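Give me structure tokens for this 101-residue protein.
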Amino acid sequence: MVRELAERCREASAQLRLASTARKNDALEQFALLLEQNKGRILEENQKDITAARADGMSEALLDRLALTEKRIGSARFGRFCPTQTRRAARTVRCATRTEC
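Here you go.
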């Protein structure tokens, strides 16, 4: 299973390297929309992970890094994955979805 996943990642990496900027931006926008659409399920599953990790004795510092919140998902969606974002204008640009970044 891990080998198959690694091979799929290697193939995706090669395709991504050849993709145009517009295509990469489209993919990032789709990823952001999927994050928003699946936010509830992502948070539920993350809570299960947190519970299991806490039961296994994971430190609070690592639990904090593992924990997702709506704010963290929003940060991923509008921070790192906003295709039109620049470092200098991060607070004022708009994504292609016309949602405030």
